[in-house]
Amino acid sequence: MTLPHDCFRVSVSAAFLSAALAFVADTTPAKGVEADIPQIQTRAEGGSIQQEIELAAAYLTGRGVKQDEKRAAYWYEKAAEAGNPEAQKEIGYFYQIGMGVLVDPVRAVHWYQLSAAGGLLSAKVDLGVAYVWGVGVPRNTSLGEQLFRESTEKGSGLGACYLGDMYYSGIGVKQDLAVAEHWFELGTKLHDPRAAFRLGSLLSTVEGHAQNLPRAADVLRKSAEEGYVPAMQALGLLLVNHPELAKSTGEAVERLDQAANAGNWRASATLGVLARKGSGMPIDNGSAYYHFRVATLQGGDPARQLLGNDLSIIAGKLGAADVARIENEANAWFQQHHDRLQFVYKGGENWRRFPAFALAVPEEGSYAGKLIPTQTFSQSEQLPAPNPD
After folding, report:
1. How distant, in Å, are the alpha carbons of 26, 136, 159, 197, 356 from that of 204?
2. 98-127, pLDDT tens digit by residue?
3. pLDDT over threshold 80, residue 10
4. Which residues contact 36 (CB under 8 A, 6 or more apart)?
């Protein structure tokens, strides 16, 4: 199994990620915030950068006003034009993914450059991504590597993660797994959950590389607890295969549930396998069919190709009535949980300025996932089994 490297596809929206990475928790704003909107708008219209940013955040989340990405982009850009580095980074991300504005990678890079010049370290990392892949600028992997190194020297774990990716895959440099591991290790020490995920994957799944499963479980757990969905799935699978590494008897299923609720179809498929075999849970064909069906809804053609035969076999055991009922339950659940998430975190105190509750998996061909600024996902929610009645 190869190490899944999507690091560059999830470009850096670090203004959002500056919020404490954690599981979704209470993100209800302070009492009476809606009553402050007229005053915030008046001050924003008068040129207050702080209020421009707060008004943009209000439109982004629909806090006290109707949610409107275009208005959010407008006010972030106003603050960016006034020279605020964080707002410059934010509107650069909006142009990168087309959030409230048309996709414009050249404009995105323009704002990242200004933000980096203003001292925002994460914007330098964004520029590195742009140069490594030639998005909005001519491709220059050497310059991208230089920007990653500079950002890492100043404490960016994500910059270290990207350096690890370059050496793991041989992007602009000679492929070297030992050097890749060094950068992933450093990124983990700098508290970047993506670097921790990559380190854990390298230590547990990459052929030809020495394994260290206890260390892999530790760093994957750290990444998962900071809200990185691929780490939730990877840790769950590792604990299924090596239950001696689990912190509790139910940890493997718990981690897989978390990933499945975030739209990770492979986690849903694994839950189906566990229910079919009775591993870590009672044997239950209905539950197995349900998880497999959810996986096909989440994963599309790849999931259907992998699980079609399993669904057919289990359907024959269940009967038409049970299959129809479970299909309805799976479809109803998916309608409420259709987002495919890469990160799940809370805005914390930052919701007034640059709110972030989740980050979607990037679309095919995209280098950035879309911000999901409303609370649409709860880690406390478990993927339910079908109604036995």
Report:
1. 34, 36, 23, 11, 31
2. 999 999 999 999 999 999 999 999 999 999
3. no
4. 64
Q: Which residue has the tokens 């975030």?
A: 262
Q: Is 296 left (phi over 0), alpha (psi -120 to 50) or beta?
A: alpha
- 39: Cβ contacts below 8 Å, ≥ 6 apart: none
- Spatial neighbors of 365 by CB under 8 A, at least 6 apart, are none
Cα dihedral value 296, 299, 302, 307, nearest 10:
-30
Please tell me whether residue 354 adopts helix, strand or coil conformation: coil
Q: How many DSSP H helices and E strands does the chain contain? A: 18, 3
Position with higher pLDDT, 349 vs 272: 272
Question: Which amino acid is located at 351 in the chain?
Answer: W
Can you state the angle between helices 85-97 and 105-117, rounded to 10 degrees? 160
Closest Cα to residue 250, out of 240, 260, 241, 259? 240
pLDDT digit string (tens) for 26-45?
Answer: 333 443 445 488 999 999 99
Q: What are 61's two structure tokens? A: 């989340």
Could you please report the per-residue DSSP string of 9-59? GS---HHHHTSPP-S----PPPTTGGGGHHHHHHHHHTT-HHHHHHHHHHH
Order of strands, sheet of 371-372, starting from the edge strand that comes earlier in the sequence: 341-344, 358-360, 371-372
Q: Which class for 153: exposed (0-12), middle (13-18), buried (19 or more C-beta within 10 A)? A: exposed
pLDDT tens per residue across span 210-225: 999 999 999 999 999 9
Q: Percentages helix, strand, coil for the chain, rounded to the nearest 5?
A: 65, 5, 35
Rounded Cα distance between 83 and 85, Å, is 6
Contact yes or no for 354/90 (Cβ under 8 A): yes
